[in-house]
Amino acid sequence: MKKAMAGILAAAMTMGTMIPAAAVSASDVTTVSLWIPTLASYTDDAVASVEEAINAYMSEKYGVQIDLQYIEIGNFEKAVNLAMTTDEVDVTCYFTDDGQLSTYVANGQLLDITDYFEGASDALKETFTDAEITASSMNGRMYGLVRKYQYGGNEVAVLNKDIAEELGIDAASITTMDQLEEVLYQAHEAHPEIYTMVPQSAAEMTWGWAAICDRGIGLTGYAYADWGTTELKSLFETDGFAEFCGYTNKWYNDGLIMADALSNTMEGSTMVTAGSAFCTLHNADIDPLDKLYPNTVVTGEIAPPRAESIAIGNLQYGISANSAHPDESFTVLEALYTDPEFATLLSYGIEGEHYVLNDKGRAEYPEGMTAENEPYGGFAATAAYPDFLILPVKESALYEDAKATVEAWDESVEVSPSFGFFYDTTEMTDFVTAYMNLQDKYMNACMTGSVALNDVLPQIKSELESIGFYEVLADTQAALDEFLANK
Fold first, then answer.
1. What is the distance between the alpha carbons of residues 72 and 442, in angstroms, rounded to a whole number?
2. pTM, rounded to two decimals
3. Do 161 and 289 form a contact (C-beta atoms < 8 A)?
4. 1-151+312-420: in CATH 3.40.190.10
5. pLDDT in tens, 422-445
6. What is the side-by-side order of every strand in the sheet holding 91-95?
7. How many CA atoms lie within 13 A of 118 on its CB side?
């Protein structure tokens, strides 16, 4: 899964040669709208100043200007879906974890960029692995470029450091659920006044779906398989889910898991750091969790690094099929991933105004500025942008070389054997909604141990039967089998 990156955009494009900088005049400049979701706060004045700086650069180098639009994250999917029915948006971010890629493609909303990509610069083509290209493709055609990011995660537990030291617990030696269970009971006996185990976030016991099952094979949102297999089931009927819930139900009944876990609103790591809880499960990747959460220690790997089928390419950038400027839009799309100056302006803002480079060449806030008062929120919200690997490394980063660190991490991640399989659920809205409602009804209750899976499984199966789940699953399985046979 070798990945390479270059720092400049090559001149040769699929649909022709870009205009040399000296030849660009005002009449040659095309405006391309770029939509990005907000993961932080942006003031109108700050966005306008960044847009002005971007356009001074982009018009001279590429003969294009950017109409930069930030859309509130909660409204983003709805707004983009509507905008792509018109020529209002050219280049946009979109999320894929609920099957939007297949939906947008089926609806004819995303431009097929296969020919553009094949004729693009080596800098762009070498940026993406085969798996990442697969993640942005359907039926052998490309429809976008995935965000460059570390994907997948290993499952660990985060323990309160003071209690672990008091009890002589060697966190790094804990690599199984049985070993974790042993120290949980030890901590519970020594400190019954605090929560022994809390959910990772709110009522979610863990985000580490890949540690217990392969969530959403084919981006269906309803078909699961135990890791390493391709036999599709409901989540509730996988062996991994049953095993996990067996542990948590025991811990819940013995008072180790907070009794009101289903109504919890706190982050588990926050409670562990504060000493109001001893342990929470967590998903780790390139950032050492004990550095992110003070007063904690982290166990060894309870489950190795794995990526769900939807984890690679869960955020992508593509071109609206209704764009009036597809050639210029691809120029912008390519520059997002290959031009560090453009990418840094877009992501961090203006140097000296929204960020500074210190004497180590690392990026940080200007003196007196924080995430709370910096007017251009990109520096605090890098995850929304296409490629943080070509940006200056932040002073707060716990690595020296983002590209090398992420590449090494991604090389270690195991990917589901079903990766690349898509099943079109466009015409199955009622069924998918019914299944997701059923899953929401039972999933967290079982995972927190509040309800014993064995007690409710007959009812779950009955409800699955009533919504036609097993017929749909059989059809999905047949499609998966065909995909694997021709892979």
1. 31
2. 0.76
3. no
4. yes
5. 777 778 889 989 999 999 999 999
6. 64-72, 30-38, 91-95, 315-319, 145-146
7. 7
